[in-house]
Specification:
alpha+beta; binds flavin-adenine dinucleotide; single chain; 10 strands; 4-stranded antiparallel sheet; 10 helices
Length: 385
């Protein structure tokens, strides 16, 4: 076994660490407070090649591996989870469907500008009545005169309404079998499609600087060639995307936990009580030791899943284990980080206060903890597929 990162992986990690320290961290508190989308950070991430990190250079990407991508998300989440989810949702959910299922023409038209960071793109699976039960999609797309006519609503879609968003790829029911079973397909819906309406941004507990909206389709028409992947394979293809997405969400959880640990470590050395730094108390030392133990464990799981994917091996089980575990680790770590800060941790100007709010979604998005356990149970052969 070899736990050393390659030179390229180390270079990407330190590039992202410096970018996060010098550019992301200084504006994280303000962006959160003002619910301000970080356009200039997105532009810089595009210039640095991060918005297309794991895609081949011929499609505008940087040709890096999944391990590098996971390290990049970790470093950025360490400074700010909102910026990290903007990157992770763009790469894993927005751009990946074009890379995995697009025709050459679709890759050229859609993937290239996304990988260069010139545009953002949404992934529209969740609906008001279909969350964990993603196959319960009610949005319909009917083929009429060479066009898909779409009606329905999508909920909680990341990156779907920024000034640089190019559109959203959605799942929709394109036919029903005689038994009423839905045929679900994936359709590309550009932002300027008539009848495609984005709501105002949701007001959120965390990830406040990220863009999340409800989308409505009222007889929205797109050309028949906007079908992405094979007709009827939409749900299956989107679930495949989520398999890879789990690595980046798990990396985000680890990064957030690392950031909370950094803050708690520094505070424990600087804060004095009873005439000593609180870091001198064994109760605080044990908390920090436990936090680091769990972070290291979660990080190894994420990197193992990423490595398996890069090696072309089955990575789905490890990615699910990593997503579940790192989400729960991030909860325990941010909680202890606030505890170490005492009353100051409850104050908004301390980063751990923001991290505490940003953490909760790690246990809900891209499969709740409960659903993640079901996915694992299925993967180890305890449930029928
Ligand atoms: C900030 C944010 C960003 C998001 N971004 C996107 C995005 O870009 N694209 C997208 O498509 N979606 C996105 N989502 C949606 C997200 O993936 C869903 O919220 C999530 O999958 C859960 O669905 P739900 O909210 O409908 O909860 P529900 O499915 O209604 O779950 C409610 C509760 O019931 C439990 N539950 C449900 N079914 C079962 C079961 N079978 N067994 C046991 N317990 C169960 C759940 O675990 C949960 O505790 C985002 C959500 C948020 C909040």
């Amino acid at each position: 076994m070899n736990f050393d990162l390659t030179d390229e992986q180390k270079a990407i990690q330190s590039l992202c660490r410096e970018f996060a320290r010098d550019h992301v961290a200084p504006q994280a508190e303000r962006n959160d407070r003002e619910e301000r989308f970080p356009y200039e950070l997105v532009r810089t991430m595009g210039e640095l090649g991060l918005m297309g990190l794991p895609f081949p250079e011929i499609y505008g990407g940087a040709g890096a591996d999944t391990v590098s991508y996971a390290l990049a998300v970790m470093e950025i989440a360490r400074a700010d989870a909102s910026t990290a989810i903007t990157l992770a949702a763009h790469v894993s959910l927005g751009a990946s469907p074009f890379y995995l299922f697009g025709t050459e023409k679709q890759k050229e038209e859609f993937l290239v500008p996304l990988a260069r960071g010139e545009r953002l793109w949404g992934f529209g699976l969740t609906e008001p009545g279909a969350g964990s039960d993603a196959g319960g999609t009610q949005t319909r797309a009917e083929l009429r005169d060479g066009k898909w006519v779409i009606n329905g609503t999508k909920a909680f879609i990341t990156n779907s309404g920024t000034d640089v968003t190019g559109g959203t790829t959605i799942t929709a029911v394109t036919a029903r079998g005689p038994n009423g079973r839905a045929e679900i397909s994936t359709i590309i819906v550009p932002q300027d499609t008539p009848g495609f309406v984005r709501s105002k941004k949701y007001r959120k507990m965390g990830w406040r600087a990220s863009d999340t909206r409800e989308l409505a389709f009222n007889d929205a028409e797109v050309p028949a060639e906007n079908l992405l992947g094979e007709r009827g394979k939409g749900l299956k293809n989107f679930l495949t995307i989520l398999d890879g997405g789990r690595i980046s969400v798990a990396a985000l959880s680890v990064g957030l936990a690392m950031g909370a640990y950094d803050e708690a470590f520094a505070y424990a050395k600087e804060r004095h009580q009873f005439g000593r730094p609180i870091a001198a108390f064994q109760a605080i030392q044990f908390k920090l030791a436990d936090m680091l133990t769990e972070i290291e464990h979660a990080k190894l799981m994420v990197l193992k899943a990423a490595w398996e994917k890069d090696e072309g091996r089955a990575f789905e089980l490890t990615a699910s284990l990593a997503k579940l575990y790192s989400g729960e680790v991030s909860r325990r770590v941010v909680n202890e980080a606030v505890q170490i800060h005492g009353g100051y941790g409850f104050m908004d100007e301390y980063p751990v206060s923001r991290m505490y709010r940003d953490q909760k979604i790690n246990e809900i998005g891209e499969g709740t903890n409960e659903v993640q356990r079901l996915v694992i149970a299925r993967q180890i052969g305890l449930l029928s597929p």
